[in-house]
Amino acid sequence: MNLVRVACALLFLWGPCTATLNAQATAMTYDGTAQSIGYLGSYEDFIVPTDVDKSFLLLTLKGGDGGKSVFPNTDPNKVGEGGKGATMRASFAIGTGATEIPPGSTLRFIVGDKGVSRTVASSESKDAGSGGGGSAVFLKRPDSTNWELLLVAG
Questions:
Q1: Residue 54, C-beta contacts closer than 8 angstroms, at least 6 positions apart
Q2: N or C: lower Cβ tally within 10 Å for the chain?
Q3: Per mean pLDDT, which range of 84-88, 99-103, 118-122 is the poorest?
């Protein structure tokens, strides 16, 4: 399997045929390669093809990393690195069963951004870099208007 993880959310249909997304693309496509989504400031939808020839969907999701804290009045300047965003992986069966993802479903990806880095006045300051944003994947079945939470990473 050729699996490339470029950004914070990754979708791939089990087997040699997967899907791909260019970071500037406005819609995800099912074209034979892994799909990767970076932070876009909005959500990205993917519709599971009705003629899908794979039996599983593999999702890898990463939360945004935390921002840095820089203390300029120290010798040398100290930097508090932000924490790493969590990574979650899950696989889901594609099919028509109650616990499966049906063809024609919509997957909605919301990718969290990296936290803001800050320069603080002193090493005693309580101002610091912010935490990264959470990432999530939701599912809307073809016969529903409701979204179900599939996966989340902070």
A1: 13, 14, 15, 17, 94
A2: N
A3: 118-122
